[in-house]
């Protein structure tokens, strides 16, 4: 007979292992989706942000992703070449361009991810409304937390003038065991 874990033990398992494993699986899945669509992972996720949040400028996309505007220029060029994105002049500022996902290509994404969507939907059929509400709340709140902590990490890096944790880049000293 399986002993039910304590609430604290279950929470520790979720935070310590399950969320990390889920995150890794999601990253690797989206790498595979990007490959299947002929995109790089960064290009795929930038396009996903445009699909989720709607049209925006390259500067806005750079701010969300933390990529430089130069890197975003490359992403935009590759997405435009592959016909996943189109640019239109900003009606308020002719010097800027608004990035739009190419809606006619959305079906490409849907075709690739549909088998996983169907499997997840089938898994969710096993939960009642209260459990589904808890799952939806957990996902929404952890997503918000991830964005908030991403912003904090970037702000700390800007403040300290580095992208590392301040760990010495020198080679460690190797001590003899003699």
SS summary, helix count = 6
CATH class of one domain: Mainly Alpha
Coarse morphology? globular
What is the β-strand count?
3
CATH fold name of one domain: Arc Repressor Mutant, subunit A
Q: Strand order within the widest sheet?
A: 1-3-2
CATH superfamily of one domain: Winged helix-like DNA-binding domain superfamily/Winged helix DNA-binding domain
Give the SSE order as H and E letters: HHEHHEEHH
Let me know the average pLDDT. 87
Terminal Cα span = 51 Å
Kindly state the percentage of residues in helix. 55-70%
Radius of gyration: 21 Å
Strand percentage: 5-15%
CATH architecture verdict of one domain: Orthogonal Bundle
Structural class: mainly alpha
Q: Mind describing the biggest β-sheet? A: 3 strands, antiparallel
Low-confidence stretches: 166-178
Descriptive report:
The protein is mainly alpha-helical and 178 residues long. It has a domain at 8-126: Winged helix-like DNA-binding domain superfamily/Winged helix DNA-binding domain (Arc Repressor Mutant, subunit A, Orthogonal Bundle). 65% of the residues lie in helices and 7% in strands. It is built from six helices and three strands; from the N terminus they run ααβααββαα. The protein has a three-stranded antiparallel sheet with strand order 1-3-2. Helix 1 (7-37) packs across helix 2 (41-53), helix 2 (41-53) packs across helix 4 and helix 3 (58-65) packs across helix 4 (69-81). Residues 166-178 have low confidence and may be disordered.
């Amino acid at each position: 007979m399986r002993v039910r874990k304590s609430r604290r033990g279950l929470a520790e398992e979720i935070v310590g292992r399950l969320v990390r494993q889920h995150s890794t699986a999601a990253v690797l899945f989206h790498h595979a989706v990007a490959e299947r669509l002929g995109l790089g992972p960064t290009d795929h996720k930038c396009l996903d942000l445009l699909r989720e949040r709607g049209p925006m400028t390259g500067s806005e996309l750079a701010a969300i992703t933390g990529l430089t505007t130069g890197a975003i220029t490359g992403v935009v060029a590759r997405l435009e070449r592959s016909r996943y994105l189109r640019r239109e002049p900003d009606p308020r500022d002719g010097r800027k361009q608004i990035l739009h996902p190419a809606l006619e290509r959305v079906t490409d994404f849907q075709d690739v991810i549909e088998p996983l969507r169907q499997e997840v939907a089938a898994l969710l059929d096993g939960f009642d409304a209260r459990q589904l509400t808890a799952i939806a709340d957990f996902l929404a709140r952890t997503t918000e937390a991830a964005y908030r902590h991403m912003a904090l990490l970037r702000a700390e890096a800007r403040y300290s003038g580095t992208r590392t944790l301040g760990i010495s880049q020198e080679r460690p000293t190797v001590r003899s065991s003699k």
